[in-house]
Predict the structure.
Amino acid sequence: MSKLLETNGLTVTFGGLNANDNVDIGIEKGSFVGLIGPNGAGKTTFIDAITGFVPTSAGSVVFDGHDLSDLKPHQRAQLGLVRTFQSLELFEDLSVKDNLLVAAHQTTWYTLALDVFRIQQKSEEIEERIDWALEVAGLKGLEEELPTDLPHGQRKLVGVARALAAQPNLVLLDEPAAGLDTAESNALGGHLRGLLDHDVTVFLIDHDMGLVLSVCDFIYVMDFGKIIASGTPEEIRSNSEVIAAYLGEEAGEVQARSAEELRGMSDTAGE
Amino acid sequence: MLRDKFVILVICITYRGDMELIFGLFAGLASGSVFALLGAGLVIAYRGSGVINFAHGSVAAYAAFTWDELRDMPGETGIGNEGGSIYLPWFDPIPEWGFLKALHINNLPVEIHIMTDPPAWLAMIITLAMSAFIGLLMHFLVFRPLRNSPMLAKVVGSVGIMLYLQAVALLNFGGSNRADDGFWVFNSTSEPIENFLGMDDKNLPRSTPYLALAAILIGALAWALYRYTRFGLATRAADENEKGATLLGYSPQFLAGLNWVISSVLAGLAGVIFLHKTMPNQLNLYVVSALAAALVGGLTSIPGAIVGGLGLGAFASMGVSATSYSWWPEWLPVDGVRAFAPVLVVILVLYFRGHKLPIRGTVGLGRQPRAPATKHPMIGVGVGVFIALLMSNIFISKWESTLTMTLVAILAMLSLVVLLGFLGQISLVQWTLAGVSSFVLIRLASDGLKVRPMDFFVVWGPGLPDPLAALGGVVAAVILGLLIGIPALRIRGVQLAVVTLAAIVAIEDLVMRNRPLMGTAAHTMNPTPKPEWFGQYVGALDEQSNQTDYWKYTVFSIIVVALAGIFVVNLRRGVIGRRFLAIRSNERAAAAAGVNVARTKMLGFGVSSFLAGLAGMLIAYKMPMVTSEFFSPFVGLAMIAFVYLGGITTVWGAVLGGMLVGGGLFSEFGGLHFEGITQAYINAVGGIGLIANAILTSGEGISLTLTNQAKALIATMRGTTPKTDEQEELVVAEEANV
């Protein structure tokens, strides 16, 4: 089976730090692949690199047979490689439906003329796709709302719906479940599985181990910019390195917290 | 000794070089010092509050006027002033005209007499106190309320102040130019330094080295203040992280206020010590060069701004010296070179370092003004056209002129609605593009013959027939507009406003007043051709008698503006309009959604410049001649002020703005009832309205605010007030109880 997306030796460097170090992954068409890793592991940087939002210093990204090296973010999106953002990044002063329409329409050089002479460009197909995207994200009935009037969880879902409206072949979801409660998270997981029936391949990045382990077919684990493990959910669950990475993070957090407390105490003592 | 050594060094370095350029370099330090001081003030204000103050030059100008007015000898200028008075930075809101005079309302004090012929040190203290006062007013009335507003609102706020201060200076001090001898070493009458650098024919004004010294000294003091005092440390902390500084117990707003005072005092100082070299009015636009200097300092470094200012002055002056060479191309005029130097610096700095310039960390910015789509434009346009036609039948020539002026303004404002309102690109240059279109049209249409018997000048040209000449003008505006749009691909927000402000000055001197390019008349009175479109005469002057005869021109303008209005409404309702708004909202997200941000932005610049070009065409058809003054920066800023007041995001905002702006229908009707309402009053009120709108309606403007209220009123009358969530919950709870 051919790979839909493939990275070969992808490296992203910030100053002297390798945020992504020689990352090789492959995503097969019609699969549901996950990427997990502790905070600061380089997951979002990896998505940014694939979609062209940060420059790569080495390696290549091949999507659907196209080498993406020289393509700008919007060109990659037009090929069907669509992403969401961890930090929302919605069109805050457009209604939910308009948010989706921006992504759904393709333009040509004469689109302006079509606009000005009011030649209908709304096809059945676009309407249907938007309906479907709203359905998947559970946003039916909120089409005319402004994103800023919605609670945080639903705003996240507007981002997901907007990505789906762009008619993606592969959708990269950057922590879509962050800020959702467990029930919402589970419902989202179910909807996302349903995407596979619509010829959409999914690459899911999340913190929520539960969600990732329950919906993904194949999982990559990243730490310090490197892929440290990959395999089916069962394999990942029992992988000792993965457990160490996650435990290590928790231990680190505890340390950091106690260090801060100590510093706070000495500050007050000093004054 | 040291000075001699330095001179010898310079001579050695340039042994084979040309002394003309070296002299230019030193002569340029004078203007460079004022750029440096103004630039340092801009840096201080930016670090203190995150605002690039476009009104900084106007503060300097107001201080310069104050100084000159204080030192005016009684009876010297003879415009009814005695000297020794200060004028507070506002105007009398209750004029003493007509029936108002009978009411005997106690007016706001404006003029306060201090003493006749005050000594220089006292005048200096008073002037700097006035600058500080203006700084405080700016902080408390404008920038503090706007602290959490979007960037457009802040830019608009400072542009409003610029417009307001310039207009109030005109009202309080009169429009005449002042020539002050200066004082102490900054004196234009003292003996010049002869044989400068051993050049026999070169005399350097004695004040020049003192000016440069003053700039360096004041810059060093300011730098030390921010480097070594607790106040400076706190300011830098708040600049880096406002929230963090608050947690440490500093009030960012108090710091901001103090920084505004320091910045304004520096502006006042610059205005006063440079007054023997220039006229106060010209200081308004020195802000362009000052911005270039501040950008060299990365908007954060005072020494950088000082060096940048001095360097820019020297650079521009060397360029001016170079124009005297025989090899210098004739099509590059002296004024153009002087005006282009800061533009070059601004563009270079922003292009190469734009992404490194600090974006100040404020606590989150408010929402952009809404841009609702108009649902039934044909009804509105129909009603508008009907009213305009009706008026054109009732009105006699003066009012018909007002009507067509309103139409021109509406068209220019539509171009701003597209670019600023929809696409969110803060370009201040669109009105100047209308001017370019006008000038190019005239150049292309003229054939070297006198158009009207009263013309002083004839313009040579290819004599193109009219729709073609107009097309040429519009195309020129679009090309220039696209060129100005190129930096917008790299930079955004307030930085673009800086580039476009610089571009205004450069285009005025480099293109519109360019004799070889635009013909002999370009500097003074540029006679307009007699336009015929497909056999129909569409000009505003009668073909034979050259008297005003508006009938056909009015109809032509109404058609053009109505079509442009429909164009903009449909643009907003279409795919492209939605993409414009998406880019205004979030460029990253737009790119991720597959929008080609670069191309879409260029499309916006092109469309907007096209509309501005059409406005330029209407102006060329309206007047017997055009001058570059008609397209001066302040007229363009007034256009932005009033469309923002009317509503920057809707076509109706442009219509309303066109009626309110000076020369428009509303303001002229106002002038009918209150004689003495001048352009200055209108601009001052416009400046206030602009700021009030930015603060009170978050920039949505009169038209949207009125629409909202009307909708609410209709809803109340029908009794269909939508239930709030709370009420619904109550209802549900009651039902549950039953």
Q: What stands out?
A: The domain at 3-80+168-270 of chain A is CATH 3.40.50.300 (Rossmann fold).
